[in-house]
Amino acid sequence: MGTKQLINIAINAAILAGEKIMEVYTSSDFEISIKDDSSPLTLADRNAHILISSLLEPTQIPVMSEEGIHLPYVERVKWKTFWLVDPLDGTKEFIRRNDEFTVNIALIHENLSSAGVIYSPVSKELYVGMVGLGAWKIVNPNPNCTLELIAEQGMKLPLNKTKDEFNVAASRSYFNEKTIAFIEVLKKDHPQLKIVRKGSSLKFCLIAEGTADIYPRFGPTMEWDTAAGHAIMKASGRNIYYIDQKTELHYNKENLLNPHFIAL
Hints:
By secondary structure, this protein is of the alpha+beta class. The chain has 2 domains: 3-156, Fructose-1,6-Bisphosphatase, subunit A, domain 1 (Fructose-1,6-Bisphosphatase, Chain A, domain 1, 2-Layer Sandwich), CATH 3.30.540.10; 167-263, D-Maltodextrin-Binding Protein, domain 2. Helices cover 33% and strands 25% of the residues. The chain has 8 helices and 14 strands. The chain has helices at residues 3-25, 43-56, 73-76, 91-96, 147-153, 177-189, 202-209, 223-235, and strands at residues 33-34, 40-41, 63-65, 81-89, 102-109, 112-120, 125-130, 134-139, 155-157, 167-171, 194-198, 215-217, 240-242, 261-263. A hairpin with a 3-residue loop joins strand 7 and strand 8. Helix 1 packs antiparallel against helix 2 and helix 7 (202-209) runs parallel beside helix 8 (223-235). It is globular.
């Protein structure tokens, strides 16, 4: 099965998972519980995980999902290609009902993010990227749409935008002293700097679009938080680096916690 076929399956899975998420989002009970790492888990997370896993399973490619069972490193280190999934990225934003949450599905090949799909269930914005081919955005996609159709009818990224200010993407729920200090340094070269706060992986989408110029992250994230956005950024000509701004972020590490990074 070729990469384009695989991404078509991921597109379908992301959109259908978005529908499952919205069923819970519009209900009166999210069935919130707290995981061992103190992060929240909702019925929407669980339902999206089950649906995505069932649709990706026929590809016969290993799936690592935030809400799934994480195999020991000695087993997954053998994976050349695998799916990396966050069924509901931005659970805190979901609980706050601020609409800024996404479905993230990435295809990892030899520890690098090679293709990704991000879907925002509320705005119905779908972002798709395949490294070496390109990245696109489409609104109100049909669940059965394909990469070929998106390339024909969607908007190629980055978008042609003219702006005077230098935009820094920042987390809606995480903004610490290191981030503030980094932004203060940027202001020396960009006095018109503007901070754009967004939840979930939408920050990577802003950079892929060209709406934001940089996203510094001096706080904890996991591999499934960044992988899909990373592929879309790379496909649009951008990237995510360690704080040295030279070494590309990679995946399937023994410790799935990302280091601090700069997306630009």
